[in-house]
Specification:
Elements: H1 2-23, H2 25-45, H3 49-63
Helix pairs in contact: 1-2, 1-3, 2-3
Length: about 60
């Protein structure tokens, strides 16, 4: 799961950089923080291995900022 988070974070750096160029840095930080909070809450709701891996990928995408 950690490798998945790390890989998603590398991809997310490009995505968040593109977002920051379009909407500004402060809004991008707000969006990334909201996405990270939502993915951390989703860890509480995951019941199986597939859920943990998918939430790990979502957390990595949010953490890439």
């Amino acid at each position: 799961m950690l490798s998945l988070q790390l890989g998603a974070g590398v991809v997310a750096q490009q995505i968040w950089g593109w977002t920051a160029d379009r909407v500004g840095g402060l809004r991008t930080i707000f969006y990334a923080s909201a996405a990270m909070a939502a993915s951390m809450a989703a860890f509480l709701l995951s019941q199986d291995e597939f859920g943990l891996y998918s939430v790990s990928a979502a957390f990595g995408l949010a953490f890439g900022d």
